[in-house]
Amino acid sequence: MNDSRSSSMLLVRAASVALLLLLLLAVITSTCCPSRPRVSGPSSPPLAVNVSQHGPLPSLRFLTFNVYGPFSGSSNVRERLSDLVRYVGKYDVIAMQEVFTMSVFGVVIWGHQRWLVDRMREQGFTYHVVPPDPWFGQNAGLLIVSRFPLTEAVWLPYTDWSGIDMWTWKGSIFADLEISDRLSRLKVGNTHLQCGKGRTLHSIQPRNWWLMGLEAFFLHLSSYAVNSCGIYTRSVRQSQVSEIVRHIRETVGLKLQEQHLLCDRCKLGGILLVGDLNIDARHQLKAYQAANRTLNPLEDILLAEQISKGQAVSFTDRNATDIIGFESLDYAWFSSVRSQQLANSSYVYVSGSAQVFGLKAFNETYGVGENKFISDHLALELQIKPVNA
């Protein structure tokens, strides 16, 4: 009996030491994550829209969708992504979340990202932007695919995170969309913020690595089910929103200062930020209002359209037994950019074009939830249109 108990204790200690070593490895190698996103497309991309001086300009159809594809906790990912590919024909730009890769010592050992990019290319999405793969852990899981050239891609890694998100290198990707040599650019951002429903007050800073490490260690070892995403998640999300806004103000502000020096298609005519913000406008109204104020002058399209008063359900907890399991997590924020130097065009949201809807799995055996969708999230579509200034 004593021998078996001693063996069990040794196994527990060995597992604890291994987990601590992995934790230290992840923290130490956080500085090894590449700082640039990967951009793909023809080396000399043709600008695909011919725009005459008169007549209507084309509307661009956007889709943002969390595909539900983490390394742990999801199943039938390839089958569900195959179904997604069958839905995308009418769109021009698609922003996806949870298209994860998993890396160990800088080598990708798991993921569907490259496969999905190839399938999207077959559907005419010639250009794509993805975040860098880290040295260890999941990448940010973000992907933008487009029928039109994507330029000036930027990877914005967040400096604040908590809990299990220490294994996922969360951030945002941005790129400028060019649809014609006579139209200004549209800046598109895609993000997925900190997960969880934790506290608002920030008693510790998750980037204080040893406190964050203790939190994550005891979280995994003792009480994974209590709050696997950490206990300070609301404050972390607000910090990440602030990082997005700082980046937009810095890059867009510089671009606006230089508008008079830029060619027509190098000028900036609008900003669109989409993604899974993990901020529930239905049950976390104060957190949502704080994010909305921070993102100003970008405007929440769902709120502006009064779609469920800005609280459209976009996520259903797979284990939900009541209305609490229905949440509003996925958004599109937009702002038109107008300046005296922007003489050729700007961008506007096409009124009435936004809607939130589920994508049905073509085979119910791998469908998610009672409705057998291809994800635990619903999709959000909208149209943005260039207009002559």
UniProtKB/TrEMBL annotation:
Keyword Cell division appears in the UniProt entry: no
Endonuclease/exonuclease/phosphatase domain residues: 63-377
One Gene Ontology MF term: sphingomyelin phosphodiesterase activity
Keywords, sorted A to Z: Signal
UniProt KW Phosphoprotein keyword: no
Signal peptide span: 1-30
Superkingdom of origin: Eukaryota
Pfam families registered for this protein in UniProt: Exo_endo_phos
Family as reported in the entry's similarity comment: Belongs to the neutral sphingomyelinase family.
Protein name, entry field: Endonuclease/exonuclease/phosphatase domain-containing protein
Gene source species: Guillardia theta (strain CCMP2712) (Cryptophyte)
Organism ancestry: Eukaryota, Cryptophyceae, Pyrenomonadales, Geminigeraceae, Guillardia
